Task: structure prediction
Amino acid sequence: MYSKKLEIKIIYIIIALFFTIFLFAPLIVLFKNSLNSYLPLFHNKEIFVATRNSIEVSAIAAIITTILAFILAYAVNCTNIFKPVNTIIRVGISIPMLVPTITYGFAIIYSFGKQGLLTKFFGRQLFEIYGFNGLLLGYVIYTIPFAFLLINNSFGYIDKK
Result:
């Protein structure tokens, strides 16, 4: 009886070792080969600048989106705004989730571009959309519905008093 349990444990250990080896050996080889490809990039100053810019625009977009989503969710849940306005906010904030992502770029270009609708209306381009400002605007428009839904759902569990 005792030798049978020991035998089963040894078989499980051997199977676990083979599983671990065959699972992680290819991953280790892949990591080693990819590391040789990525090491030259760590010495490239432009990569660091691009990474810093990406983190910067993402962090600022996250802060702006969170603040706007909180204000909208607070207005919808904790104020006595006119019911149709409440409905318009709830539906209007969800509409961007239903359109393809390329639509955001077209909307920004057709609204704020050099020959955009708002540029023609004001007679000048309000801000440069090709670069940081355009990315920031696109990220905020893209992420605000998701942030609003998360914060709005959280307000459902908060006591309004």
